[in-house]
Write a structure and sequence with these properties.
about 200 residues; mainly alpha; 2 strands; transmembrane; membrane; transmembrane helix
Length: about 200
């Protein structure tokens, strides 16, 4: 393993540091204290968030067919197709979310951005479900405006879920020392259990 050495003017070695040692900072830019930042508590919180995200995603996906059919007056075939497209989009956009998480932003920043997108989608869908003038009358197809609100809310929800599914496990794994493979492996086992629990 390569070592990086710092030397004084007289040639004495001050310290040796592995190239893989990372310096982490907190949200204020100060060096992070491992006893206060990260660790098991922060990783456990990501598991709890994973349970809640999966509950929201799957419960809505299950109820979308009946909502599209009964409230928005789409045919059963169209309703099922819309849900299939929603599910496919939410999983396919994970590729884009992974690129954003790995290349452009930190996992926490990506998590916050996609949380906001997800929240916009859920709020739009909830507002449309609440107010009758945003839904079509009985046995009438939705107007262009009503369908636009539905699709914007639906696909904002799908895009938000896609980014969250990528950023959340990465952020949870970042809470541990990268040299401790046992803890990282245990985190992913618990995170997978949390995802299954949310289903």
């Amino acid at each position: 393993m390569a070592l990086e050495m710092s030397t004084e003017r007289d040639g004495n070695v001050l310290y040796q540091q592995k190239e893989s040692d990372d310096k982490f900072v907190d949200w204020r830019g100060r060096e992070a204290n491992p006893k206060k930042h990260g660790g098991i508590r922060a990783a456990a919180l990501t598991c709890v968030v994973g349970v809640l995200i999966n509950m929201v995603f799957l419960s809505n996906a299950i109820n979308f067919v009946s909502y599209f059919r009964l409230s928005m007056h789409y045919s059963p075939a169209t309703s099922a197709n819309m849900v299939t497209n929603f599910m496919g989009t939410s999983f396919l956009l994970s590729i884009v979310g992974g690129f954003i998480c790995d290349s452009l932003f930190t996992s926490f920043t990506t998590f916050i951005i996609f949380c906001a997108i997800n929240l916009v989608g859920v709020i739009l869908l909830a507002i449309q479900a609440q107010f009758t003038h945003l839904r079509p009358a009985v046995d009438v197809k939705p107007s262009l405006f009503q369908a636009t609100i539905l699709y914007i809310g639906l696909y904002a929800f799908a895009a938000g879920i896609a980014g969250l599914n990528v950023a959340l496990p990465a952020h949870g794994a970042e809470q541990f020392d990268h040299n401790d493979a046992r803890l990282i492996s245990a985190f992913f086992n618990w995170f997978n259990f949390a995802i299954c629990l949310g289903a």
